[in-house]
Automatic annotation (TrEMBL):
Residues of the active site: 80 (nucleophile), 171 (charge relay system), 173 (charge relay system)
Top-level taxon of the source organism: Bacteria
Quaternary structure (record): In the presence of PdxS, forms a dodecamer of heterodimers. Only shows activity in the heterodimer.
GO cellular component: cytosol; glutaminase complex
Functional pathway: Cofactor biosynthesis; pyridoxal 5'-phosphate biosynthesis
UniProt name for this protein: Pyridoxal 5'-phosphate synthase subunit PdxT
PANTHER family: PYRIDOXAL 5'-PHOSPHATE SYNTHASE SUBUNIT SNO, PYRIDOXAL 5'-PHOSPHATE SYNTHASE SUBUNIT SNO1-RELATED
Keyword Hydrolase: yes
UniProt keyword list: Glutamine amidotransferase, Hydrolase, Lyase, Pyridoxal phosphate
Catalyzed reaction equations: aldehydo-D-ribose 5-phosphate + D-glyceraldehyde 3-phosphate + L-glutamine = pyridoxal 5'-phosphate + L-glutamate + phosphate + 3 H2O + H(+); L-glutamine + H2O = L-glutamate + NH4(+)
HAMAP family: PdxT
InterPro entries from the UniProt entry: Class_I_gatase-like, PdxT/SNO, PdxT/SNO_CS
Positions bound to L-glutamine: 48-50, 107, 135-136
Length: 196
């Protein structure tokens, strides 16, 4: 079994946990305290409102422990606002939040709440028909040379991977399509085996 945490500051925490546990080889941990990070093999940063999440990360003392977790080589998966937290640059802001991935992101690039939509995406290494839900979604406007683009929608980058970091603009946890979570669980298993 691998232990994967879901940062429980905001967003669809239970939905992510349910998806992870459906794998049958994963124990999902709802993370409310920074010290819980020590027992994890991987971590999900769910959607929500990234500025609020950043404030809560600072308020509850998560900033340094999250950085330490990332530096340890353990995988992190950010969805929607989680993607924004992971980006080195955010359009219109001086600096990124956690700045884990060499990419620039643009908030609410696909419109407001009422312009939410579902679509199928061709996701490299995951599926040719992955169901994706976009809600006030950001997009990845630029990536560095070490970032692998996994998926696009209308020529805009919506999913990427850099080493042990995975990020997407959409909400895979709000569908019945488990394949993106399966991809992340396999990343966690492979990394755990390599780190032993």
């Amino acid at each position: 079994m691998v232990k994967i945490g879901v940062l429980a500051l905001q967003g669809a925490v239970r939905e992510h946990a349910k998806m992870l546990e459906s794998e049958g080889t994963t124990e999902a941990i709802i993370v409310k305290k920074a010290e819980q990070l020590d027992e994890l093999d991987g971590l999900v940063l769910p959607g929500g409102e990234s500025t609020t999440m950043r404030r809560l990360i600072d308020l509850y003392g998560f900033r340094e422990p999250l950085q330490k977790f990332a530096d340890s080589g353990k995988p992190i998966f950010g969805t929607c606002a989680g993607l924004i937290l992971m980006a080195r640059q955010i359009v219109g802001e001086e600096e990124g939040h956690l700045a884990l991935m060499d990419m620039t992101v643009e908030r609410n690039a696909f419109g407001r709440q009422k312009e939410s939509f579902e679509t199928e995406l061709d996701m490299k290494g995951v599926a040719e028909d992955l169901l994706a839900v976009f809600i006030r979604a950001p997009l990845i406007s630029e990536v560095g040379a070490s970032v692998e683009v996994l998926g696009t929608h209308r020529d805009e980058i919506v999913a990427a991977r850099q080493d042990q970091f995975l990020a997407c603009s959409f909400h895979p946890e709000l569908t019945d399509d488990h394949r993106f979570h399966h991809y992340f669980v396999e990343m966690v298993k492979n990394t755990k085996a390599a780190l032993v």
